[in-house]
Amino acid sequence: MRWALALLLVACDDGASAGAVDAGRPDAAVDAAVDAAVDAAADATADLGLAGVGPRGTLTWTLAWDATGVEREAEGWSATTDLGYRVHLRDGAVTTWDAALIATTADGACPVQKNHQDQNETSADAPRVESLVDPLPRDAWARRTGLLDRYCLGQVAIARATEAVATDGRAERRDRVALWLDLTWARGDEAPTPLAVEVAFGFGVYLPLPGGPVDFQETGRRLTLVRRLDGLFDGIDFASATPDDVARDVMRALLASATLAPE
Known about the structure:
The chain is mainly beta. It contains two helices and 16 strands. 12% of the residues lie in helices and 38% in strands.
């Protein structure tokens, strides 16, 4: 099941900490996006049955990719964008830096910020470089135990890799790189134009929890972070975009498609 997502994309700094980088969004817009995420989670059914429920106080993270809608090639995959560009992704990878939950305050509020927050006891804390051309459909990521608080939202961040960051076994790790792409683009009968993208900046997103807020004193959760490849290049005008423009739009699209699904 796909759950509503908070369209709150936030810039983060270059790695392990969440820097106070202005995302360029008015506070009112940020508040509205957060409120929408909380409302969407509250409106979702709280009765998950056995799906996504784990041992009390335990949180399990899994990474997953949905490749539906892209055309497999001998080298990578291709797709036609909403602007009519034919894009062939020959290679590429993204560094999924972390995912965590946000605890409610004593009065039940959800204390979110414009930028993704520091790691806490729910953090996966296991940065992973993942292939964008042949990603693993599912990949066990992390498990946290002994959780006691009540949590209201999830957050996910992309940031630059270090030499110590693990890969999914299919991706090439590039030191101090958050996203890299090797692709060609064309429109109509034009000859394909090669484009190489490599950036260190990152992005984050808030995501509602399936079934709404969870109290780990009463239950546990198995959550899967699902991302989609289809639509990854939608909205990009390759004829005028810079490599950094492409990187930002790809990160936004990747995170805008992300959901936290009950495993």
